[in-house]
Amino acid sequence: MSRLRLVLITLVLILFVLIVGFVVAAYFFTSATEPVSLPPLPAESVTGNPEVLTGRSAIKELATVSLTPIECTLRFADETYREGTAFSVDGQLRADLLNQHNQVTSLIVVGDVVSIREGMLVRGTSSVAVSGLIGTQVSYTCRPWSVDMSVFSLDVTD
Q: Would 156 be classed as within a structural domain?
């Protein structure tokens, strides 16, 4: 009788270990497959072409729309500017904005420093002074860009 009892206790222990093992394994497998919720990107891919990004944001935010270098066509909702082109790479941004009088304002944003060229006048200033301009909302369409770092110069001979 004691031998039968020992066999039963052993079987119960084995069954217990198997059940606990399955429960632990099921917990780890189901928790690893739960979808991870990522924050939405500010740009959306145009259907049919994953390299083209479209969206709406402030001009200064175009520096972070993509992890790869991009060239963007800009459209403005307000009456100050008609259109523009922006280039972004490694957090740097250049935007050339055409106003209603066909005058171009160029700006370069690198960190907190904004450089502006209006006509022949080139000036550097903090982003606080030009927050209205770089905060302007635009609709954009962006495509991959072959980097040309010379666009980040505001030489008056541009």
A: no
* 9 plus 80 within the same structural domain: no
Q: What is the CA radius of gyration of the chain?
A: 29
In a domain, 51, yes or no: yes
Three-class SS state of 142: strand
81 and 12 together in one domain: no
SS3 72: strand
Locus of tokens 């939405």 = 40
Summarised one tens digit per residue, pLDDT across range 22-78 is: 787 777 666 544 444 444 444 444 445 667 888 898 888 888 888 889 999 999 887
**Residues 53, 65 contacting (CB under 8 angstroms):** yes
Residues 50 and 23 in one domain: no
Q: What is the pTM (predicted TM-score) of this model?
A: 0.62
| Co-location of 85 and 23 in the same domain | no
Tokens 């066999």 identify what position?
7
Q: Does residue 155 belong to any structural domain of this protein?
A: no
HSE toward the beta carbon, residue 115, CA cutoff 13 A: 14
How far is it, in rounded angstroms, from Cα 156 to Cα 142? 26
The size of the chain, in residues, is: 158
Six token digits for residue 153: 């110069």
- Range of the structural domain that residue 82 is part of: 44-148
